[in-house]
Amino acid sequence: MGAARPRLLYHWRMLFRQLIDNETSTFTYLLADEATREAVLIDCVYEQHFRDLALLRELELRLTHTLETHVHADHVTGAWLMKHALNSAIGVSGNAGATGVDLPYAHGDVIAMGQVRLEVRETPGHTAGCVSFVLPAQRMVFSGDALLIRGAGRTDFQQGSAERLFRSVREQLLSLPPDYAVYPAHDYDGRCSSTIWEERRWNPRLGDGVREEDFVGYMKNLGLPHPKKLKVAVPANLACGKPADGSDGPRLPDWGPVVRTYAGVLQVEPDWVYAHAGGLTIVDVRELDEIKATEMGLLPESVIAPLSTLRDHLDEIPRDRPIIVVCPAGARSAIAATILEKAGITRVANLRGGILGWRAQGHVTEPSSSVKI
Ligand SMILES: [Fe+2]
After folding, report:
1. Is 169 in the same domain as 308?
2. Within this chain, do residues 24 and 168 fall inside the same structural domain, yes or no?
3. Is residue 244 assigned to a domain?
4. In a domain, 1, yes or no
């Protein structure tokens, strides 16, 4: 029996996580009904697919939708990859002009996951198809690139209009109650969230007292370079992130049922290792003295390569078969798996739960006297 699932950070039945793609400073939001385990991802990123997939798996959530606040110009969405992996529906504004959309939402639509309800508000101006998601029960708004923390999305391409954006933000967002938390699609200075009150008080572009002509003048003189990925990202996002080469996108190693954990480690289950042991190299990363001093024993046919000297002996690790690294609980071997992967060994994985996990699933170990160096 595993430990009871803890109640994680959540707001009234809602589990909530803010994730970031460091390269593009894009925020991805995971929202889930804590009771039904239904989840949505807002603005997931192509390159973060396996991270997001791992978090959904480890939190035991069922992804029902990916939701886009708009057609992004700076990164490619992971929406299609999630649909391919988990059969989640793709939601994008009906005004965005995207193909492959399962849920083309419009102003006033409500997206529900269990008891959690997201209200769609059209907030065009950064692009013509921008929306924000308002959660009245949680007193939160996901404002995309319409309202940023102390800023607003640029309006100089993708049918942008400073006049439209000014009215969208003022009428649809800053009119919300002042205590609503604001979660934008990006921040480039380490700021994660704000409130409607703060933005009305301190947003230099759109705060109270700023007139439309002031805002338009501000936006016309931003002088920003175009995003590096603009030419790739916009067409890819108009296809919801479906790879243009017809492939299924990035893949995990296919030599076994390997998963990448949210901690970033390639990992396999003890039962699979037991069933395929003849085709694998088992590498035990404990110190020799430690192995001899314990009654825990070894997995059959183990090779010993202590973690403390592993980096010095990478050339001696046999690579003709996939490598499974083991230690008592699967913690030190997780580091070892990462070291071997970084050394260029693609067929490597950690044994989940280590030797204790192996034994817990009913598999036997050999006595320590059978050790082979
Ligand atoms: Fe954007």
Report:
1. no
2. yes
3. no
4. no
Length reported for the chain: 373
Pairing of strands 110-113, 281-284: unpaired
Summarised one tens digit per residue, pLDDT across range 300-320 is 999 999 999 999 999 999 999
Cα 75 to ligand 1 centroid, rounded to whole Å: 9
Query: In terms of residue numbers, what domain contains 149?
Result: 10-238
Q: What is this structure's pTM?
A: 0.92
Instruction: Flag whether pLDDT at 240 surpasses 60.
Output: yes
* Residue 186 CA, ligand 1 centroid: distance in Å: 8
What is the 42 CA–ligand 1 centroid distance (Å)?
13
pLDDT attached to residue 292 = 87
Name the DSSP class of 366: B
167 burial level (CB within 10 Å; 0-12, 13-18, 19+): middle
pLDDT at 68: 98
d(CA 227, CA 48): 19
- Tally of structural domains, the chain: 2
Residues forming a β-bridge with 188? none
- Same domain, yes or no: 158 and 234: yes
pLDDT at 371: 67
Q: Which pLDDT score is estimated for 373?
A: 52
Q: Enumerate residues with CB within 5 Å of ligand 1 (an ion).
A: 72, 145
- Which CATH number goes with the domain that contains 115? 3.60.15.10
Cα 69 to middle of ligand 1, angstroms: 8
